[in-house]
Design goal:
The complex is a heterodimer of chains A (134) and B (135). With 134 residues, chain A is an alpha+beta fold. In chain A, 35% of the residues lie in helices and 31% in strands. In chain A, a hairpin with a 5-residue loop joins β4 and β5. Helix content of chain B is 22%, strand content 44%. The chains are: A alpha+beta (134), B alpha+beta (135).
Chain lengths: 134, 135
């Protein structure tokens, strides 16, 4: 963690996190998160929505982004992290997601980054900014 | 149970208490496959676990309409949390509007430990107007 703290200058890339989404993982998150929205877990219901199938919880995708920020910033992340994102496109079972980020400024004790999450086709699913006090 | 679709701007959900049990934290970490948790030397839980369980406590009070979409999320963490700690979450409907047949709702939430904030956040949700009318 100390080594990471000294190496994150402007322009530095955060360590990427890659995960493959499956319906089983979505179901497991639905149980843990208590969010049984049928859009996530009921293929028959989801087939009749604009998405044509189930999609992952936004908070599941953000867990992957947060894992990246934890790896980059250690305990500074849960102690002082700020995150602001928009969900740009749905994450579907079978998608392989890669979370990435780049440090954009280090100023006044705050490190700011752009962050995004893309699928294997390069489509941006989540984009936004993160900030950590250090 | 009330659904979020029935709630107007300014509505405050009553504070709800919840415990970050070690069993639940383990289930959460397994479900999100968090491989960075070992970086947190102090035995802290992933910060998103706090958010997830806070939202779970809220959903016990007001359910999501079935076709709800998560459009955006803001989170601010102010203190790390360990397994076993007792927390309280409060929430209010900060905004509610309508556009192109969809209701856009902003829900602010705050999570505290012994009265001191550990996390604040704002979720932007959307669901079909019909869901709001049905509620």
């Amino acid at each position: 963690m100390t080594q990471q703290r000294t190496s994150l200058a402007v322009g530095a890339a955060l360590p990427t996190v890659t995960k493959t989404i499956t319906q089983e993982k979505i179901n497991a998150y639905a149980l843990a998160g208590g969010d049984g929205n049928p859009l996530h877990i009921d293929p028959a219901f989801a087939a009749n929505t604009q998405f044509g199938g189930t999609i992952a919880h936004g908070m599941l995708v953000l867990a992957y982004v947060s894992e990246m920020l934890t790896a980059a910033f250690g305990e500074d992340w849960p102690a002082s992290g700020r995150l602001k994102v928009r969900f740009r496109a749905p994450t579907r079972p079978g998608d392989t997601l890669t979370s990435s980020g780049t440090v954009t400024s280090v100023d006044g004790g705050k490190t700011r980054c752009t962050i995004e999450c893309r699928n294997e086709g390069g489509e941006v699913l989540v984009s936004g900014e993160a900030e950590v006090s250090r | 149970m009330t659904t979020l679709a029935a709630l107007e701007k300014g509505h405050e959900l009553p504070p709800a208490s919840f415990d970050l049990s070690e069993e639940w934290v383990d289930a959460y970490i397994a479900s999100v496959e968090d491989e960075a948790i070992g970086v947190l030397d102090g035995g802290f839980v992933p910060p998103m676990a706090v958010a997830a369980l806070a939202i779970r406590a809220l959903l016990d009070q007001a359910s999501l309409p079935p076709a709800t979409l998560h459009a955006g999320q803001e989170l601010a963490f102010t203190a790390p949390v360990r397994p076993g700690e007792a927390l309280t979450v409060a929430a209010r409907i900060a905004s509610r509007g309508e556009r192109a047949g969809w209701i856009l709702m902003g829900v602010e939430l705050g999570v505290a430990r012994d009265g001191a904030a550990v996390m604040t956040g704002r979720a932007t949700l959307s669901f079909p107007v019909a869901e709001g009318e049905a509620a």
